[in-house]
Each structure stands twice: as C-alpha cells, then as structure tokens.
Amino acid sequence: MSAIEVIDLSRHYRLGSVDVPALRGVSLSIAANAFTVLSGPSGSGKSTLLNLLGGLDRPDSGHVVVAGQRLDTLDDNRLSDFRARHIGFVFQHFNLLPVLTARENVEYPLLLAGVAASERRRRAAELLDAVGLADRAANLPGQLSGGQRQRVAIARALALRPALVLADEPTANLDSHTGAAIIALMRDMQRQYQTCFVFSSHDAQLLAAADHAVLLRDGQLQAPAAVKEAA
Ligand SMILES: Nc1ncnc2c1ncn2[C@@H]1O[C@H](COP(=O)(O)OP(=O)(O)OP(=O)(O)O)[C@@H](O)[C@H]1O
C-alpha cells in the first residue's frame, strides 16, 4: 500500500531570465508504514521534492496524492489545514519555538488542532517519554543539546499521529554519534506509530537504515531501489 503517489511532477525556478529545472517529470510511489530516504547529490532536487510532498510548495505540472488526497485540488487554506492534520515536519535546524518548553512545543500542534488541555498534556508526556526526554519536559530549547532538540521536534511531528512525517536533512546539524541515535529513534518511532517517514539526506547512516531509497540526479529519478524489505 502506498502513502504517497507522485505523478509526473515538475518544478522550475526562475532566476532572472534563467530557468532552473529543479524537478523534471518525477513519478513514484512511496510505501505506507515504511522508512524512505530521498538521496542524491547537492542540487539534485531532494528539498524541492520534499517540499512538494508536504504541500509547502506547488508544482508547475503533475500532482501529488497524500493519504488519498490530491494536494492540487486544495486551495491554500484547505492545504494548510490538511498539512496540519496529516503531515508532521522535522527540519535540519529543529525549528522549535524558543520561548516554549519542550512539553509546550510538543503540545503546540495539538493546541492549534483544538485538542483539550488534559489530552494535550497526556499525549505530550507520552511522546516525550517515547523519545527519552520525560525528564526534560520543562526545559526550553536553549537548555537542550542539538540531539535533544531534534528529539523534541520528532515528538512534535508525531503529536497529531500524522499519516506522514517528512524530514529535511534531520541529522545534518548533529555529530555522527548523535545522528546515529536520532536515526535509531526515528526508525523506532516509525515502527511504533506505524507512520510513513520520508527523509532527504546525504547521510550514509540514514541510507543504511532505510527500507527504500529514492535516488535523484539533476531533478530526475534514478532507479528507485528497495534497500531491503520493509519490516
Ligand atoms: N528558491 C530557488 N530559486 C532558484 N533556484 C532554486 C531554488 N531552490 C532550489 N533551486 C535550484 O533547484 C535545484 C534543486 O535544488 P534542491 O534544493 O531541491 O536540491 P537538493 O538536492 O535538496 O540540494 P542540497 O542537497 O544541496 O540541499 C538546484 O539547482 C537549486 O539551485
């Protein structure tokens, strides 16, 4: 079963009079309940594709279907609502709100979704426990290490139990030891929460941990290889 269908997707950027083709006619299926890595050299189109999968950007042609919903049929408000409810994001720079504690950061998407306070507290506590940070719930992001911040970001991404979690270079700002721990945690969370995880990365450790690798070069798909059978 696939969580995402990508159909003949193209995205060009204009730099003055120069046309930069970032993605050229990409079609693929991404499996549900699996760990998929988008890989390829710098400039190959990984972030562009990830942004289109997450509805953060719109293609010039082609379309994306996430959890059965064609994103191109949604206007900006409905797309933003769909994103909030069905897609969790993890960023290279963590993007936590600096004035909120770890617990409040995890609760934030639940607050926006109108979840009652007692349920927000319960779910944030469960998730912080799952990422090994139960004792750091009251800390601000500035009082946490890079690896701990990324753990909070992963807990936040899972708060609304999304169909899909997208992560753009989630280990790029971490040392290799911390990066390996974050990869193991994401793998664990993917299994525990039965979610589709998609990452962009140059990180060989992340590629080795993946069920599927999507290889891009010059905005086009290379052979999509099954790294190993999905667990
Ligand atoms: N906002 C933009 N304006 C113009 N060109 C852009 C823009 N964003 C990306 N590009 C170009 O589109 C192409 C694909 O970029 P993209 O960021 O998707 O690649 P990437 O594989 O994620 O690279 P990296 O691994 O370095 O992050 C590149 O040629 C890049 O220069």
From TrEMBL:
Membrane-spanning residues: none
Top-level taxon: Bacteria
Swiss-Prot/TrEMBL keywords: ATP-binding, Cell membrane, Membrane, Nucleotide-binding, Transport
Gene3D superfamilies: P-loop containing nucleotide triphosphate hydrolases
Domain ABC transporter: 4-231
UniProt keyword Cytoplasm, yes or no: no
Coiled-coil spans in chain: none
UniProt cross-references to PROSITE patterns, sorted A to Z: ABC_TRANSPORTER_1, ABC_TRANSPORTER_2
GO MF terms held by the record: ATP binding
SMART domains registered for this protein in UniProt: AAA
Name of the protein in its database record: ABC transporter ATP-binding protein
